[in-house]
Design a protein that fits this description.
The protein is α/β, with parallel strands linked by helices. It contains 17 helices and 21 strands. A hairpin with a 5-residue loop joins strand 10 and strand 11. The longest helix has 17 residues. The protein is globular, with a radius of gyration of 23 Å. The chain starts with a strand and ends with a strand.
Amino acid sequence: MSDLLFTGGTIWTGHDVTHALSVRDGRVSALGDEAVRQGGSVIDLGGGFLMPAFGDGHAHPLFGGLEAQGPQIKPCTTVAEIVAEVGRYAAGHPELEWIVGGSYDPTIVPGGEFDARWLDEVVPDRPVVLRAYDYHTVWCNTPALERAGIKPDTPDPRLGWIVRRADGTPMGTLREWHACDLVLDLVPAKSMDELVEGLAEAGRAMAAAGITWVQDAWVEPYMVPAYLEAERRGELRFRANLGFRADPDRWRGQRAEFTALRQQVDGRELVTANTVKFFADGVIEGGTAAMLEPYADAPHSCGMPVWDQKALAEAVVAFDADGFQVHIHAIGDGGIRAALDAVALAVRTNERWDRRPVIAHTQLVDPADLARFAELGVIANFEPLWAQLDPLQTELSVPRLGQPRADLQYPMESLRAGGAVLSFGSDWPVSSQEPLLGIQIATTRQTLDGSPPWTPDERLGLDDALRAYTWGVAYQAFAEDRRGTLAAGMDADLVWLERDPREVAPLELRHVPVLGTWLGGTRVA
């Protein structure tokens, strides 16, 4: 690895700016005049902006990478477009037993309820299963329902709903864990080569966006060998921390399994396995996020907690005692309170240690719970792209929440001002992995067409948004002494932007090109 010298632009360290940065042996070796004296192969920034590489505090790289191996339905804006793409792909792959794809937009059909018969028109003879982009819902055709044994008299599973037509027959839309798994558990497993290619594709997408560290927030045991093999083959272009998914039905048995997997990963250069992921609840748009008060459009329902509250607390205490960071998906105000209560019990019960628990998404927080994040040392992970009044909000979430509860969503500035650490992520492939797009929304709370700001008091300043995508994610990764800012001795994880984002009109931030990304001093994009 040759020494590098970055010069000819603005270099933002995370605290201030300088004019030069040198890299040696994968680390930043000097800044400013001392960097110029050290020299190296010159990379002329051309008046651009060099900064710490972005991290992603909550994403699903393997899922995102694997989507490239199926029908490309993510860009589709109508049912007809999705059906046509599925039909095209199926016709081109007659050898496949199943047609599997993601991620469709649930807002293009009222209530997000999709009919199996629409897919039957193009693939009547093989099962089709498509994930909605929230990954909490699937749409499948009639052969898939038949393979799964889903009939009119099939009861809803404990954690999930089978959406039905007016006559009681299964429509083809399944919501949440156990319902989706009725079909997904039947899908043939991917080969090792396919899994490694999925991670390679994810790495290309992450590097192109300037991201060098990712919290994989949904890891099943079969994924661990794929990560290790991708690293062995030189196909892994990002650092990853694996978050093992705790199952409410068998978490006690998972304790030894996760500890063994962590030991298997220990010592790797790019992969760690220090986290256990919990789903406290579902999603507001599906009516499954856990609420303190009933949904406005479903007065009989407060959602669908994935865990009994006592069991969640018991499991969080146990994995915390095992030395795992806990990372809890919690979206509704009821789910967030349950997550905070579980962390509070771990703090009271276990020995004191640098635990850094994470609550991911942090969508609807009861005002009474805001101060608890800082008090308990809970990192508030946000997917900032979601903090806008887009169709997902206006068509699904706001009607389900009602006013004024809808305006309590994504309290970024309230939590930051209260002393909580913020980390940003994308939940990719649920939404775009591009940090600059998320930063634009975080700092404007406006849609891409420039609608009036939504809850403008919760806008972040640009420096705070950049910090959440750099230092905040490094802090979440227990790596703030090595990444997230630039100083001598830090990892040379860098991103080069064409322009200084601090000098760009807020609604133009997403258009700033990423010109290069370096992982430990090696260029990956």
